[in-house]
Amino acid sequence: MQEKIYQVAVGLIPGVGAATTKTLISYCGSAEQIFKTPKGKLKNIPGIGDITIQNIQDTTVLHDAEEIVKRSEKLDTQLLFYTDPDYPNRLKQIPDAPTLLYYKGSAAVNPVKSIAIVGTRKATEYGKSVVRKLLEELASYKPLVVSGLAYGIDIQAHRDALDLGLETIGVMANGTDIIYPSVHKNTAAKMIEQGGLMSEYTFGSIAEPMRFPARNRIIAGMADVTIVVEATQSGGALITADIANSYDREVMAVPGRINDITSEGCNNLIKQNKAHTLTSASDLIELLNWDIEPSQKASKNIILSELEEEELMIYAVLVDTEGIHIDELSWKSQLPMHRISSVLLQMEFKGLVKALSGKKFTLR
């Protein structure tokens, strides 16, 4: 519990964001050591000035953090620090990942397959029917369904996922102890039992406008593909799609009639080559190689004794996955990026691995 208090406290230090937190952790070794490192050594850390040091040494944040930890236990909410094994691996790959997540639910945050479904708050019957049909066709693959608990396409995705027996997580722009919009309380309660609620904001935080774009980066970061079902020319769904593209994650959009306002955003994403066209689940299945079974990938008669040490490290990760991003592969294999690129190329030449779209790799 003590380390958890320090982890929460880091995020409460004025002027210390995610990037600075990661710098401090890398130099000090742990959240606790940040507060126990002498002033002189803190001064030697790049980007850490006198004001930041003064804020670190203010014990008020530790008292506040202790109260948050106690409340998290009462509310059955997990506090996931980015160095924790239970922190979402997909989020660890993005540069602006939150250092602390509040998570209340039962779903695993590191599922084999994960999709985000987003769209306009003013969903049409067409959009709602597309969400339902898509999830019906994907149900056998059991993907985690991530969205934002908002009106329209978001809540439709959550409700259809629940109805089809799929786990679904709602990422919120407020504390997990507040349901916004409040009319979705019943759905949120079901999601806690068959999915979960996630936020980077502490208890009591309200959904302020500037927090929604930040929330959207978590939605995009939690998924292998972001699916935009309906969207106007601007709005949160397009922001999420742009963020997903910046993370080298796949984006798909459902086309609509050219005179429908709620299809303008999707049609433009496709026209500008910012999204793959999604007309049925088969488009997604083919894009993400979900139709390739793990056993098929490892069917090649690979003689492990003939693999070099670094090749074995990569093989050990790939044999149990269905396509993994190079950043996650680097993290899981513990090979630095400059080495893993070279080794992967070598394994491609040998016919052992195959490069997929979105900087992902799989065994042949």
Notable characteristics:
globular, 12 strands, DNA polymerase, domain 1, 364 residues, single chain, Arc Repressor Mutant, subunit A, 18 helices, 45% helix, Rossmann fold, alpha/beta, nine-stranded mixed beta sheet
Describe the model.
- The protein is of the alpha/beta class.
- The protein folds into 3 domains: 2-74, DNA polymerase, domain 1 (Orthogonal Bundle); 114-287, Rossmann fold; 294-363, Arc Repressor Mutant, subunit A (Orthogonal Bundle), CATH 1.10.10.10.
- 45% of the residues lie in helices and 13% in strands.
- It has 18 helices and 12 strands.
- The chain has helices at residues 2-10, 18-28, 31-36, 39-43, 50-56, 60-74, 89-92, 125-138, 153-163, 185-193, 211-221, 236-246, 264-271, 281-287, 294-297, 309-318, 326-333, 337-349, and strands at 78-81, 100-105, 114-118, 144-147, 168-171, 195-199, 225-228, 250-253, 276-277, 324-325, 353-356, 360-363.
- The chain has a 9-stranded mixed β-sheet with strand order 1-2-6-5-4-3-7-8-9, sandwiched between helices. A 3-stranded antiparallel β-sheet has the order 10-12-11.
- Strand 4 (144-147), helix 9 (153-163) and strand 5 (168-171) form a beta-alpha-beta unit.
- Helix 1 (2-10) packs across helix 6 and helix 16 crosses helix 17.
- The protein is globular, with a radius of gyration of 22 Å.
